[in-house]
Amino acid sequence: MARITLSNLAHSYLPHPKGPEDFALKQMDHVWEDGGAYALLGSSGCGKTTLLNIISGLLRPSQGRVLFGDRDVTDAPTAERNIAQVFQFPVVYDTMSVRDNLAFPLRNRRMDAAYIRARVEAIGRMIGMEAVLDRKARGLTADAKQKISLGRGMVREDVNAILFDEPLTVIDPHMKWELRTQLKTLHRELSHTMIYVTHDQTEALTFADKVVVMYDGRVVQMGTPQELFETPAHTFVGYFIGSPGMNLLDARIEGNVAHVEGCAVPLGAGYGPVGGRAQIGIRPEFARLTSAEGLPVRLRRVEDVGRHKIVRAEFFGREINIIAEEGAGIGPDMTRVAFRPDKINVYSDDWRVAPAGRLGEAA
Ligand SMILES: Nc1ncnc2c1ncn2[C@@H]1O[C@H](COP(=O)(O)OP(=O)(O)OP(=O)(O)O)[C@@H](O)[C@H]1O
């Protein structure tokens, strides 16, 4: 197992890139700590697969170095990197039994037969296929075949890292939850470095200890699910994570007050001058409808989604979402929305601005 360092890395698929827009991965430095469970989260086309393929050696970066521990592997082929990779669609040998498919990476490395038998049975149990180990893979559903691919990715205990590229796309929703939980358990048992690529925030937040969010070829934040929720470093993180995402409003910041369309919104901290496009960001969970204080809004609709309600309101042509308790009464006089000051984040040109000091603290 190894710590993986990406140093001064960038990648363009073009032979002669002219500017940043020609790079699928913009210049980055990033470290994946040994034994971490990471999710790599971002929307389609942001560079997740490119990054994964550079780590596994399927792709050589056009700039920068890849280190496993202290070893520079930038030019090392995939086979030398000791990486297991699970792809979006199943890769199984149809003519082999489930057992032989699972045993394949171990037999390749000439492991002891008794060890292979025990290990394959343990993995078979983990993916819920112990009863069909001796069946041929041919004729199994796509779902079952993908479970074999997952099992094969995890069968070796001696790999540097396991990379999963949207591995649950073809798995049915119930099994998805179960496999994700099992992957997490397996991570705790084996402490492999695992990098799990997904564009699904639920998958990312339930699997990973640290979520790496990518946007437009860059890592915009690495953090725990709680950090991504409470202090999104970039407006994309605020918008992409959460359901609905963070509310963003253009503002002028003056110390501990944000001025939004002529209304003063108290902030939980003081700020120095905020340049560029200034915005405040507030999660719908920390906004509430009131009749007396806050920004004047027009209620558009209320969606009952089980444990809570999502209130869609409008403020000067922009949507503001509010999450209200299931039993909350929403009367016709509730035409204002107030924010929890300590939960408001401030952004300058999409990047979070650190407060100069919390209220009540020395700045
Ligand atoms: N082989 C390639 N040749 C040229 N451009 C490519 C190639 N592979 C990817 N790209 C481009 O690089 C950018 C990043 O693609 P990548 O597949 O890494 O994104 P992704 O985040 O994994 O997306 P998805 O979730 O859709 O797989 C995209 O603009 C894509 O069109």
TrEMBL record:
Name this polypeptide is given: ABC transporter ATP-binding protein
Transmembrane segments annotated in the record for this chain: none
GO MF terms, alphabetically ordered: ABC-type ferric iron transporter activity; ATP binding; ATP hydrolysis activity
PROSITE patterns referenced in this protein's UniProt entry, alphabetically: ABC_TRANSPORTER_2 (PS50893)
Keyword Cell membrane: yes
InterPro entries for the chain: AAA+_ATPase, ABC_transporter-like_ATP-bd, ABC_transpr_FbpC, ABC_transpr_MalK/UgpC-like, Mo/tungstate-bd_C_term_dom, NA-bd_OB-fold, OB_MalK-like, P-loop_NTPase
Keyword annotations of the record: ATP-binding, Cell membrane, Membrane, Nucleotide-binding, Transport
